[in-house]
TrEMBL record:
The species this protein was found in: Pirellulimonas nuda
Identification of the protein by name: Chorismate dehydratase
Keywords tagged on the record: Lyase, Menaquinone biosynthesis
EC nos: 4.2.1.151
Pfam families: VitK2_biosynth
Family, per entry: Belongs to the MqnA/MqnD family. MqnA subfamily.
Reactions that this protein is recorded to catalyse: chorismate = 3-[(1-carboxyvinyl)-oxy]benzoate + H2O
Keyword Glycosyltransferase part of the UniProt annotation: no
EC category name: lyase
Matches recorded under InterPro entries: Menaquinone_biosynth, MqnA
Alphabetical list of Gene3D superfamilies matching this protein: Periplasmic binding protein-like II
Length: 270
């Protein structure tokens, strides 16, 4: 099976051990590109930005393994050059879909703002764009220097403060129930093995990213949450409702069915 996953530090615990898994052909890319590849059916399943799953009535959640946070996430930030309530133009990290939608949802609901949106290419830093705010995700967001900005939002913390809920940034999705049956167990086991090996992952991954091992371990252990539980499901539903209200995705009355996580049981009665 062709499976795509995000290459950031945040998803290493989900794919630790997956490369060697039987029948899994693993490909790593940016979250936004994985969503496009899954849409073109080049992949059977992929770890994609949550908003892409919420937006497509044919996609199904495949596993309860995810990239979420229950408070500050540290690797998804909006850097404001002027106060948030004055923002007119935002630059959105090319790798992001979900956090891009999250920023628009928060600006609209808190300040009634629908900003002009431009893309911040992967190879370009925040200083390269003229915008009132810049959204950065992934490893490069962790190192962003807050000193030179009017305000910095940690997007996990902002969502939590506003809704009281966790936030699910990325999750596994597939087109068919058959793929879901085949992948659910593999992905869940890979996550369990990864979460049991966070120290080892931090040690291997931190140096090339210019992070201290302790810092990377703290991020993987405390900032991130790798399992979709009741609260995460509620958060996905709430986020879908806000995004639909803003016209970013269609409203899908079947969403709860697509987000079921009672995998591994016979499909007949679903
Ligand atoms: C937590 C993060 O979540 C990422 C954010 C995504 C998005 O905004 O679309 C997609 C995948 C996640 O890996 C991060 O970038 O650090």
């Amino acid at each position: 099976m062709r499976v795509g996953a995000v290459r950031y530090l945040n998803s290493k615990p989900l794919i630790h051990g997956l490369a060697g898994a039987d029948g899994v052909d693993l490909l790593l890319d940016l979250p936004s590109r994985l969503a496009d590849r899954l849409a073109r059916r080049e992949l059977d399943g992929a770890l994609i930005p949550t908003i892409e799953l919420l937006a497509d009535p044919e996609l199904m959640l495949v596993s309860d393994a995810c990239v979420a946070s229950r408070g500050p996430v540290r690797s998804v930030k909006t850097l404001f050059r002027r106060p948030p309530r004055e923002v007119q133009k935002v630059a959105l990290d090319e790798g992001s879909r979900t956090s891009a939608a999250l920023l628009r949802v928060l600006l609209y609901n808190r300040f009634g703002i629908r900003p002009e949106c431009i893309s911040l290419p992967i190879g370009s830093g925040p200083e390269s764009v003229r915008a009132d705010a810049v959204l950065l995700i992934g490893d490069r967001a962790m190192g962003a220097d807050p000193g030179q900005y009017a305000e910095v939002w940690d997007m996990g913390a902002e969502w939590r403060a506003w809704t009281g809920l966790p936030f699910v940034f990325a999750c596994w999705a597939a087109w068919s129930g058959a793929t879901r049956e085949a992948l659910a167990g593999v992905l869940g086991r890979a996550r369990d093995a990864g979460v049991a090996s966070l120290a080892q992952i931090a040690e291997a991954e931190a140096p090339p990213l210019g992070l201290l091992v302790g810092d990377a371990l703290e991020y993987l252990t405390h900032s991130l949450h790798f399992r979709i539980e009741e609260e995460e499901l509620a958060a996905m539903g709430r986020f879908a409702a806000y995004a639909a209200e803003l016209g970013l995705i269609p409203h899908d009355p079947n969403l709860p069915r697509r987000l079921r996580t009672d995998y591994g049981r016979p499909t007949a009665n679903r």
